Predict the structure.
Amino acid sequence: MAQQAPAASAALTHLAYAIGAQVGGGTFAGVINVAGESFALIVAPKAGELTAAWHAQRACVSGAESLCDGLANTRAMAEAGSVLAAEALALVIDGFNDWYIPSRDELELVYRHLKPTTEENYAYDDGKNASSVPPGEEYTADFPVMTGVLAFQHGAPDALTPTWYWSSTQYAPNPDYAWFQNFIDGYQVINHKSAEGRARAVRRLPIQSFNHSAAEAAQLEAAAPAAETTAAAA
């Protein structure tokens, strides 16, 4: 793990977009490390919000225990009959069809950067995130603060609701449960998988593709004035 940290930090240093940028069908919420590779995490707009039980039954779902790989978890959930997972995988938003339910650590990253309210955080071991880039530290009462991304502040069009949201991570010691996070104070805990709750879909892009899309956008923006000048001259 320690050998991967320098590369991950370098990826973050050279990001082409800032937190809150609109890209890839949603909003950039940070960088997540999955199996040694860094990805840009993209949060869906309100159209990607779902409500259902994690699974109608509490039986163990094989392959859904990853703290970082929400895509693998969601696929395992869907194969096991989860309606919530199937709905997430079926989403098509802005032409993109690779949405999924975030893992525990991906969901933490969403709270950290897109927290909707000014409420104090629950600061008791919550927020530690070995998968984010850089790794997440334990919350304090005053950090994270309400997001500076206007579209995600409470009452705004894409804001997460001040309530709890499912992650796709099954609780390994007891598969009757899965992890969720409260978007009022950041509390991370488990609930029975049969409980109905919200989920906000995400997708991810390899950092190289993420930065390449920014370069293409910049080229198009630079080319636009030249095209307008040529058209005017004609």
About this structure: The chain has one domain: 5-233. The CA atoms of residues 14 and 88 lie 30 Å apart. Helices lie at 5-13, 70-79, 83-90, 104-114, 207-233.
